[in-house]
């Protein structure tokens, strides 16, 4: 998420593969896994944030005008609604923080295991077309 908020279009992240299911197991199993992890070769994940940015742009139908990061989509009444991709990305990052991350706990009613992010993102996409051109969740993120 921090890579997205830099607004750098060509950003790549290399990190060790994380098994998020290990948090639900007992402490002794976690300790044993940690020892095994450090005694063998690690697997890595490579993420090109430019690809994620393109997918977000597709979600908002923003690929029509890539030059300045702006785009448009049809609103609920058929009118063309203008979007700023960078501000939509700021809103996306904000919504991910509401469902929790490595540093912040999730809001009690928004658990990622209960598809809270899908719900938030779906509502955002539906309601975004009803807002004005300068209305976003995050202001000057």
Q: Please, could you describe this protein's structure?
A:
The protein has 5 helices and 4 strands; from the N terminus they run αβαβαββαα. A hairpin with a 5-residue loop joins strand 3 (70-74) and strand 4 (80-84). The chain has one domain (2-128). The chain starts with a helix and ends in a 13-residue tail after the last helix. 38% of the residues lie in helices and 14% in strands. It is of the alpha+beta class and 141 residues long. The chain has a two-stranded antiparallel sheet with strand order 1-2. The longest helix has 14 residues, at 85-98. The protein is globular.
Summarize the structure.
The chain has helices spanning 2-5, 27-38, 49-59, 85-98, 116-128, and strands at 12-16, 44-48, 70-74, 80-84. It is α+β, with helices and mostly antiparallel strands.
Mean pLDDT value: 78
Shape: globular
Number of alpha- plus pi-helical segments: 5
Give the ordered list of helices and strands: HEHEHEEHH
State the end-to-end CA separation. 13 Å
Low-confidence stretches: 63-68
Question: Which structural class is indicated by helix and strand composition?
Answer: alpha+beta
Characterize the biggest β-sheet: 2 strands, antiparallel
Number of strands: 4
Count of discrete structural domains: 1
Strand arrangement, largest sheet? Answer: 1-2
Q: Report the C-alpha radius of gyration, rounded.
A: 18 Å
Strand content: 5-15%
Q: What percent of residues adopt helix (DSSP H or I)?
A: 25-40%
